[in-house]
Amino acid sequence: MIVLALDTAGVDCAAAVYDSGSDSVMGEVTETIGRGHAEYLMHVVDEALAKAGVALSAIERVVVTVGPGSFTGIRIGVAAARGFALSLNIYAVGVTTLEVMAATARAQNPGKSVLAAIDAKREEIYLQTFDADGSPLDEARAVTIDEARTIAAAFDGIVTGTAVARLSDAPPAERPDAFPIAIVARLGAGKPAGEKPKPLYLRGPDARPQAGYAVARQ
């Protein structure tokens, strides 16, 4: 199965073409852009397809990161994945950034369970724990920093993600928010086809519409 993987959940804009039959990445592109995913994503997809030497029509599944992460970036990635799936008449599936971070850590520490933790700002942490085989041990959730520290202290395994420095004495990675787009592709290739991907929001948006400032009619 030829898979197109997309990631716009963070500061990276990434795409990969992956062959699940040979477990090989045919072409991948990752650009750290911060913002502007809507303007850049199609360019990244075109580059990944060109590197792979395949046409978009050859794609048999689309995989996308669904969060938690940037509200805007997640919406852009999910909308693109669902659009590709609709136009190509194929399935789109979602993977969470927490499970991708956990899979990345397991690849470096085989046989270890993993606690994936993302610094959600506003004194909160997004986290989820996974068994050594990648099975989730609980639901993804937002907790306070104190709660997260208690969970991390009692956890017998690897702690990974952007919140590592806030939860343990382990030195943070150079790019704790980074993960290979290839892992997104592999996880998505193994997911059962079913419900369309949708954003995973563990709390409401920071920006809210103002109320009480409407101009009265004359």
TrEMBL record:
SUPFAM superfamilies: Actin-like ATPase domain. CDD domains: ASKHA_NBD_TsaB. Pfam families: TsaD. GO terms for biological process: tRNA threonylcarbamoyladenosine modification. GO terms for cellular component: cytosol. InterPro entries: ATPase_NBD (IPR043129), Gcp-like_dom (IPR000905), T6A_TsaB (IPR022496). It comes from the Bacteria. Residues 190-218 are annotated as: Disordered. Residues 31-150 form the Gcp-like domain. This is N6-L-threonylcarbamoyladenine synthase. It comes from Rhizobium hainanense.
